[in-house]
Structure formats: C-alpha cells, structure tokens
Design a protein that fits this description.
The radius of gyration is 43 Å and the shape is rod-shaped. The chain folds into 4 domains: about 1-75, Immunoglobulin-like; about 80-160, Immunoglobulin-like (Sandwich), CATH 2.60.40.10; about 165-245, Immunoglobulins (Immunoglobulin-like, Sandwich), CATH 2.60.40; about 250-330, Immunoglobulin-like. It starts with a strand and ends with a strand. β13 (about 110) and β14 form a beta hairpin. The chain is about 0% helix and about 55% strand. The protein contains no helices and 42 strands. InterPro entries: Ig-like_fold, Ig_E-set, IPT_dom, Plexin. One of its GO terms (molecular function) is semaphorin receptor activity. It comes from Streptomyces malaysiense. One of its GO terms (biological process) is carbohydrate metabolic process.
Amino acid sequence: MSGPAGGGNLVLIVGSGLANASSVTFGGTPASILFQDPIGLLIIVTAPAHAAGTVPVVVTNAGGTSAPAMYTYLAPVGPVVLSLLPTSGPTTGGTPFTIVGSNLAGASVTFNGVAATGVVVDPTGTIVTGVTPAGTAGNVPVVVTTPAGSATVAGGFTYVAPPPPVAVSLVPVTGPTTGGTPFVLVGSNLAGASVTFNGVAATGVVVDPSGTIVTGVTPAGTAGNVPVVVTTPAGSATVAGGFTYVAAPPVAVSLLPTSGSSAGGTLFTITGSNLAGASVTFNGVAATGVVVDPSGTIVTGVTPAGTVGNVPVVVTTPGGSTTVAGGFNYV
C-alpha cells in the first residue's frame, strides 16, 4: 500500500478479526476510521499525514493488536511545466495566461518575482490560468510553485513596452487666449493620453476606444504659438505646428458721456468686452488714467484736450482695435 505524504487519501485494510477496531495507526499516527465491516474483514480509513517512507499500519481492538502491514508514504512530486501561452504581453500587465503541465495543484505563479493575479488550477492539476502583473520591458523568468517545489517555465515571458504616441494632426490650430476651444487630435497609440498647451493641461480630455482620436478643450493661454504635447504611459509626442493663441478683438458697446470740454479732463466710461490691456485715443490722442476692470468689460479714463467737434474714439488691445460708435463731441 502507498499514498501521498500529505495524507488525506482513503486506505482499504483487509484482514480477519478486525471487528470493532478502536484504532488504526500509521507509523504510530492515528488514522480516521470511516467504515468497519461487522464481521471484521474490512476497514476503510483516511490516512494521516506522515514523512515520506515506509511505516507499519496496526489495527487495535478488544482482542489485541494486529500484526503490522506496511504502508509507503510517497514524497510529493514537484510541478512539471510543459508550456505557457502567450509568451509575451504589455508591460502594463493584465494579459490572461495559461500554463499546462502536471502536479500543479496548489500552484502560485510569479513573473520576475511578482505574483500573478487570479490564479486558478483545474481539478486535474494540469492547467493553471491567471493574469500577468505589470513588469519592465524584456524577458523575465516565470516560476510555478506548489507545496512540492518549484519549476521555471522554459523561455520565460517577454514584456513588450507599448509603442509611444504619434500625433498626426490637430484641429483647429488657433483659438482665443481665453481658452475654451474644443479640439480634436488625431494619431495613434493615444490610449491614456493627456494633452498640454504650453505646459497647461487641457480639460475634458477623452480618448476613443481605438486610441486614435483625442478630444478636449484648450486652457487659457497667452497670445502666440505654443507647443502642444500628448503624453501617454509610453511617452510623449509634440504636435507639429503647435497651437496659436489669438487675443479676442475688443468690442465697444457704449461710451459715456458722449461729449465734454475741448480742454479735456472729462471722466469717461466705455463698456464692452475683451477690453483687457486696452488703451483709448480721442482723435488719435491718448486718454490718460485708463483703467480696465478685471472682467475686461469696463474701461475708465480721462479725455485729452481736443478741438471742438466730433472725433473718433478708438479702443486698442492686444487683440486689435475697435472704434466707438458715435465718437465723442468736444464742445
């Protein structure tokens, strides 16, 4: 008779005079009696665990102790690995794998020393499935470990770095300095991308499932051309041509008052939009004390001296110039 050193297997003992056995021992270790034949010919027990080797099995009942029968405990057999599929996957991990072999019961699997997740061994102990952990690019050892030992998978597993992003086009290529311009960036390998305009993150960035289209909204920026950079876990790419911020042209809605002394010194207020950084001229002569409110919608100042009559009033910002309808009347 023989069985695994871990015990737990059923053993049939055949003899005579075995009725009403009080104990069955394997090398002195009691076994669990599951069944006894009333006429004393059969006993079924669960073998206890024991170190590998041959030990006596002894049955004891009211009539005494039986002559020993010999039972051999077998050392556990280490795992054998025949194949691993697939043999490569991304450095981000998450690749489902299958290992085929034998003696794989109770197996765990590591990739370069890092435990795989979701490891399941089929009831026959011949197939192990799981999911690779993240790893660095290159070939790494894969080790299967069971209570009986370890085995290294021939050929290991090769982690492949994802390709870096490629940016092909950006539409539109211009927009206001205030930001808020929806954009579409087309390329490849864009999964997980973020986008910056002159180092400032775009908002509302979404990548399509194919990893070829990124949409988002530009942040605010200063007038001029700025670099646009797409970054993924695999690296960064700069969009050719960048993005040009254009200051929005000023809009003047009203001027109050619309007339004043030709000696100048009249306090005025211009209302409109996009007035940040504005200067104001009356017939080409600069107003003094010009102040723009933080919202860029109100400009105040003082008129210069001028000649009697109606003169043009021009508001100028980095975004351009606009003439106030109706001008200003010097009296």
